[in-house]
TrEMBL record:
Source species: Lactobacillus pasteurii DSM 23907 = CRBIP 24.76
Domain HTH merR-type: 18-83
Cross-referenced SMART domains: HTH_MERR
The protein's name in its UniProt record: Transcriptional regulator, MerR family
Keyword tags: DNA-binding, Transcription, Transcription regulation
One Gene Ontology MF term: DNA-binding transcription factor activity
Amino acid sequence: MPTKSQFKNIFRNLEVGIGEASKVTGVSQRQLRYWEEKGYIVPLESDGGVRTYSLGTLMSIAFLKDRLDDGYTLATAVKMLEEHKNKIRILSKFGRVMNQSVEVEEDETGEGGVIKFGKVTSEDQQEYQLEGVINKDEHYFRLKKLKNNSKNA
DNA sequence: GTTCTTACA
DNA sequence: TGTAAGAA
């Protein structure tokens, strides 16, 4: 399994030029330069004024492209991107922690499964196992009673 | 061969 | 926003 630093190196060192960026995202070079002019994306700007994009910027470009294809204006798409980035920043941090303390069981299809988040306790001291279920057409949380700790008679 | 800027449609 | 020109 790749180490944390390997991930960082990949993320930091992987760079692509505007040609590749345009090819893989479906956004024209003209658009990429325009978005940069507007301050929506920031290239790594290496040598000779030749643009280079980080993996993160590539993701942003792909995100914007998706919103545009959905019919949103560029300005709206950018706003959505900022919110998305904030969300992902916290979510990924949470994800790294979760990956160490959470169990995942794949279902038969291999497309979904059950995520066992761990123990939760209600106000009356009843303990539950919190599970997240996801499959092709639905996703939800559920509580599984662990043992009956009820102090009621 | 690719990318850059500028300009025009 | 696509395309073309001329330079890097």
